[in-house]
Amino acid sequence: MNMGEMIYGSVRAAHPIDGIYFTIQSCAVVETESGQEYFFIENQCPNEEVNAQLAIPDVEEVRFAFKAFSFTKSYGKNISVSCQIMECSAEDPTNPCEVSPKC
User: Fold this and answer.
1) Known InterPro entries for this protein (predicted)?
2) 44 torsion bin: left (phi>0), alpha (psi -120 to 50), beta (else)
3) Residue 99 CA to chain centroid, in angstroms?
4) How many CB atoms are located within 10 Å of the residue 79 CB?
């Protein structure tokens, strides 16, 4: 993996339930040892600095992508990607998943 190359991932429902779906609230790259985080999606908004992208092709999957970047002093250390999702009901008129964030 080189700096600037795109990294792709997705969150998928293991067991879909009719009328229930989800969206990604936030995703971060986390340096495992220190716990330092860098959000590439926050408040449902992709971070433009790392060309983050968010796509929702269907109710069972949310896809994301971002350009590879480095934390200060993180070379050779373990990092992980962690996402928080928001579960939504298609029947809820105040459904937060239906509201488009102002990114």
Assistant:
1) ZP-C, ZP-C_dom, ZP_dom
2) left
3) 17
4) 14
- Nearest 5°: CA angle at 46, between 94 and 18? 40
Q: What is the CA radius of gyration of the chain?
A: 15
Strand order across the 20-31 sheet: 45-46, 37-42, 20-31, 79-89
Single-letter code of the amino acid located at 39 = F
| Best CATH choice for the domain 6-89 from the list 3.40.50.850, 2.60.40.4100, 3.30.160.270, 3.40.120.10 | 2.60.40.4100
pLDDT tens-digit readout, 58-67: 778 889 999 8
Kindly tell me if the per-residue pLDDT of 92 is higher than 60: yes
